[in-house]
Amino acid sequence: MLIDTHCHVQFHSYKNDMDEVIKRTLEKSVFMITVGTQSDTSRTGLEIAERYDGVWATIGLHPYHLHEQEFGDENETIHTRTEKFNPELFKKLAQHPKCVAIGEFGLDYFHMPPNVSRDEVIREQKETVRAQFDLASEMNLPVIIHCRDAYEDQLAIVEEYVRDGKLARRGVVHCFVGTQEIADRFFELGFYISFTGILTFPPRKKEIGEDGLSSLQRIAKNLPLERLLVETDAPYLTPVPHRGERNEPWMVEFVAEKIAGLKQIEVEEVSRVTTENAKKLFNI
Ligand code: NI
Hints:
- By secondary structure, the protein is of the alpha/beta class.
- About 40% of the residues lie in helices and about 15% in strands.
- The protein has an eight-stranded parallel sheet. Strands 4-5 form a two-stranded antiparallel sheet.
- Strand 6, helix 4 (about 120-140) and strand 7 (about 145) form a beta-alpha-beta unit.
- The radius of gyration is 18 Å and the shape is globular.
- Nickel (II) ion binds next to loops.
- The site of nickel (II) ion (NI) has 5 residues, from loops.
C-alpha cells in the first residue's frame, strides 16, 4: 500500500478519463491526496474527494497564479489565471471534512512572470505565503510547501512562524530539490520532505558523482525514511520508466522503488514507513 501525497487529478489532463485514473490507482492499493492550486482546483479537488474513499484533497493558492504567465512541459501547458488570495473563501473550503492540508503554495523565484518587477513578485509571493500560514495555523492543518530557487527565504518565514508557536501541525516540503543542509534545517523545524519522479531521472553528466548518483539521489539515500513522503505531482514529472507519458498517481510506486534501491532496503519497508508518515502528517 502507498499514498501518493501530491497529485492533481482535477487538472485538465484528466478531463476525459479522471474516474478511470482514480479507480486504476485505488485498485493498485494506492491512495491519493489531490492538491489544489487556486480556488477552482481547490473546490473541484474536494468534490472528487467526497466521491471516493482513499482520496483526500487540499486547498491553496500556488505562486504561479499570482500573475498571468505561460509555461509547460511535455504533458501540459500551463496558462495561469491571476488570483488574489481570498482568506474567507479559502477558510470556508478548509472546513470541508476531506480537506487535509493547506497547499500547495510557497516561494518560486524560478518562474518569474514577464512585465512585473522581480521585487514586486517576491513581495506578493511572501504576502501570500504568510496569509496561508495564518490560515493553516488558525484551522490547525498542516501545509504543503512548493518552493523553487527560494529555500533560504522560505526557511526564514517558516522559522519565524515556528518560533511564534504557529504552524502546530507543520507540513511537508513537496518536490524537494534542495541540498542536504536545507533538508536538515526543515527536519529540525519538524517538517517532512517529499520526493517526486525527479528522483528516478538519470543523473545529468555534470552532476553525476563517483557513486553514479545525482546529488538529489544521494540526498534521498542519506535522509531518514521516517521523515520522507512520496508523491507523483501528476500530471507532471512522470517517473522512469514511463517518461513521455502522462503521469498518474499509481506511478508513485516507481518513486518508492527508487528510494528502496538507493537505501538498499525492501520496497515494502519504504511503502509501510512513508504511508505511516503520510497518515500521521495528514491525520488520515
Ligand atoms: Ni503540484
